[in-house]
Specification:
By secondary structure, the protein is an alpha/beta fold. It contains 18 helices and 14 strands. Helix 1 (12-23) packs across helix 3 and helix 8 (198-229) crosses helix 10. The radius of gyration is 24 Å and the shape is elongated. The structure holds uridine-5'-diphosphate-glucuronic acid (UGA).
Length: 438
């Protein structure tokens, strides 16, 4: 059955949702207040970097299933049978999720609606938000507005795969009519449905991201311990990951998680817990470990090179992970200013990441320009290009000890070392101490 769907917000989640639902045959209108974005999308150009999205965008527009609009002529005619809210919920200064965009959109929809519809919340909103929205905006609307919490589990760079081959679809609703409509919406996706109440669905989203963040901080703590005792984190991760109860994913040690989701959602969950009178001690530690982990390259480079004046340092990677241009909460944003403060000259290279001015650093267009004359290079993002580098040539262009700090444990340590470079990583043996004062 073809449903008339509206997706509000053409950011990362909204755009992926819109193109994927259009691909499934639904009639989709993506709405955004940003006229420039709407114009760009209407011309067939994606506003985000995501492998495969341009093709789905072109397909959706060619089939007539996908259109873009602004709400400048009012919301009434834009409201679909299903209207998905996918606007941002950034982190407020106090760590809470900022719900102002969500509230503005929901208020406008409730006010304008002249036919019943189901409102689907895809934005990540704190537990209790669905209940508050129902009470404040939906109960008094002129028409019936159903409410479904339908969190997303899309990884940047793998979003289309995660959409069509998802491990599960979570649907939180109070009424069967809304759930029935959602089953229609996702009829072509072969995935188990977790049907539950709204508050539980909201909790599943935060608990999922908090658990994955916990796994990362846990393995990073073990990696730090490996460095103290001379054990090898690669073997340890492999050895524990083979236990199916633990699982092998998200056990890559390094300089910690970044991006627009984990840092924001862990902080927000901690905030919600505190607000509800509960001290989520484990989660606080997860956040603290992650904040500390990203400083490791600074600590070790400074130890190895006590005076950074007149030293040049290459930062390889700015994106918070490969296959995305997203630099939000990237460890590079903390590492670069700290090294620059010590007097180092910083050159950053990233093949894709968004243009970004980091004070004290110059962005260069080529990895060799970054490495030329550098005493140290810090791999912040595990781009394929870095794992394939010609290490003999790297040794030739770098100076001094030629420190390679592998912040993602992604390089072939033996190849780097045999080129005569000084290799440092996170939990790959006691190399840090050996390299000190090189
Ligand atoms: C994450 C979740 O994986 C998605 O399921 C979720 O929907 C999304 O957040 C969201 O809440 O919207 P994403 O932020 O795109 O997706 O990135 P991930 O691939 O999960 O990586 C997050 C961070 O963890 C990256 O900085 C990555 O480098 C780091 N990471 C990941 C590690 O340090 N070690 C690992 O083993 C895995």
């Amino acid at each position: 059955m073809t449903l008339r769907v509206t997706v509000v917000g053409t950011g990362y989640v909204g755009l992926v949702t819109g193109v994927c639902l259009a691909h499934s045959g639904h009639s989709v209108t993506c709405v955004d207040i940003d006229r420039a974005k709407v114009d760009m999308l209407t011309s067939g150009t994606s506003t985000i970097y995501e492998p495969g999205i341009e093709e789905l965008l072109a397909g959706g527009m060619a089939s007539g299933n996908l259109t873009f609009a602004t709400p400048e002529n009012g919301w009434r005619d834009l409201i679909g049978d299903i209207t998905v809210v996918a606007v941002g919920t950034p982190m407020a200064p106090n760590g809470a999720a900022d719900l102002s965009a969500v509230r503005t959109v929901v208020a406008a929809l409730a006010e304008a609606a002249d036919h019943p519809f189901t409102l689907v919340m895809k934005s990540t909103v704190p537990m209790g938000t669905g209940a508050a929205i129902r009470q404040r905006y939906l109960d008094d609307a002129a028409v019936r507005i159903g409410y479904v919490s339908n969190p997303e589990f899309l990884r940047e760079g793998k979003a289309l795969e995660d959409w069509f081959k998802t491990d599960r679809i979570v649907l939180g609703a109070a009424e069967e009519a809304d759930l029935a409509l959602m089953r229609e919406l996702y009829a072509d996706i072969d995935a188990p449905l977790v049907e539950t109440d709204v508050a539980s669905a909201e909790t599943i989203k935060y608990a999922s991201n908090a658990f994955l963040s916990t796994k990362i901080s846990f393995i990073n703590e073990i990696a730090n311990l490996c460095d103290c005792i001379g054990a090898d984190i690669d073997a340890v991760s492999r050895g524990i990951g083979m236990d199916k109860r633990i699982g092998s994913q998200f056990l890559n040690a390094g300089i910690g998680y970044g991006g627009s989701c984990f840092p924001k959602d862990t902080r927000a969950l901690d905030f919600i817990a505190t607000l509800n009178g509960y001290q989520f001690t484990l989660l606080k530690s997860v956040i603290e470990v992650n904040n500390r982990q990203r400083l490791l390259p600074v600590v070790h480079v400074m130890r190895a090179l006590p005076d950074l004046h007149e030293r040049s340092i290459a930062i390889l990677g700015l994106a918070f992970k490969p296959d995305t241009d997203d630099v939000r909460e990237s460890p590079a944003l903390d590492i670069v200013p700290l090294l620059a403060e010590q007097g180092a000259t910083i050159r950053i290279y990233d093949p894709v990441a968004a243009e970004l001015t980091v004070s004290g650093a110059t962005r260069v267009a080529d990895v060799w320009r970054a490495l030329e004359g550098a005493s140290a290079a810090v791999v912040v993002t595990e781009w394929h290009e870095f794992t394939e580098l010609d290490w003999a040539r790297v040794r030739e262009v770098m100076t001094g000890p030629g420190i390679i700090y592998d912040g993602r444990n992604c390089l072939d340590a033996a190849a780097v070392r045999s080129a005569g470079l000084t290799y440092m990583a996170v939990g790959r043996g006691g190399e840090h101490r050996a390299a000190e004062n090189a």
